[in-house]
Each structure stands twice: as C-alpha cells, then as structure tokens.
Specification:
183 residues; 79% helix
Length: 183
Amino acid sequence: MEKKKKSPFISAIALLFAFLITALVIIFRNKIQEFGAYGYFGILVISFMGNATVLFPVPSLAIVFAMGSVLNPLLVGLIAGIGEALGELSGYLAGLGGRAIIEDYKTYERVQRWMKKFGFWLIFALSAIPNPIFDLAGIAAGASGFPLWRFLFSCWLGKTLKTIFIAFAGYYSISVVEKLLSR
C-alpha cells in the first residue's frame, strides 16, 4: 500500500501560516500584554498568542499568574489552557507543512512510530510543564501525521493543568504578600 502524500501547496500554506503567526506575535509583542486589561477574554488572547509562536517564547504565563491573583483562578486557568492549546496549532501546522520536506527520510519514520506509540502521553507531559521545547513536540506531531484531535486534546489537558496551577500560585502568593506587608 502506497502512502498518500499531502499536496505541496497545502503543506506550503500550513508552513507559511505557522511562520506568519510567529512573525505577527513578535512584531506586536508589546501590544499583546495590553489584552490583560480585558479580563478573561484578554487571558484567552494572550495565551493563544503566547503559544502561537514557533520556537520564539512569549511569556504569557506571567499574565496568567498575575490575573490569577485578581480574577477567579480556576476560570483563569481553564481559559488560559484553551488559549494555549489552540496557540500550539501553529507548531503542529509547521510540522504538517514541513512534512513534505522530511517524509522520505528514515528519521521521519522513526518519529512517526514514536508518536504513534507515546504521542498522547508525550504531548500531555510536555504541555503540562513550562518548557521551551514543546514547539518541537508540536512540530513532530504534525510532521508524523499524529491526529489533530488527539494532539489538541492531550495538549489542552496538560496546558490546562499547568495554567490552573500557575493561576492558583498567583492567587495564593498575593495573600502571602499581603500578610507579610500587614505585619
């Protein structure tokens, strides 16, 4: 059975879209933080944009931490988790777009087997901790043909756990600081 190859046009569009999002976030990075003034919607936008960059980190977790101290931390974490998972689509699309470039290599076959065997748990674990290499996991998932819905679901689970933790850390750290200052 022969593998069905993706259209080079579709691959190029996916890759271009991923890098366009990255460029826009870098260009407008100073404006992105202003969305924090828009409450929960701002958290969604900042979390999306902060995770939509490919290989260029944007510190969106600082906003989650700060907003967790002034808004409902559970809602902040849930909304940020959605935004972060959706933002990671850019890495997945970069891998999907770059798939045509690496498809004929043995490395591609190895990554594809690895993603099929451990993909869900690997994406979940890497998305649950703050780390700069998650983009590489998203790229590998897209390049290996890992199902999009599985990628989004495992990414959402991990990112949501992480952002809920960060939002509650912001919530509780403010009360600790207030107690220290009231002495």
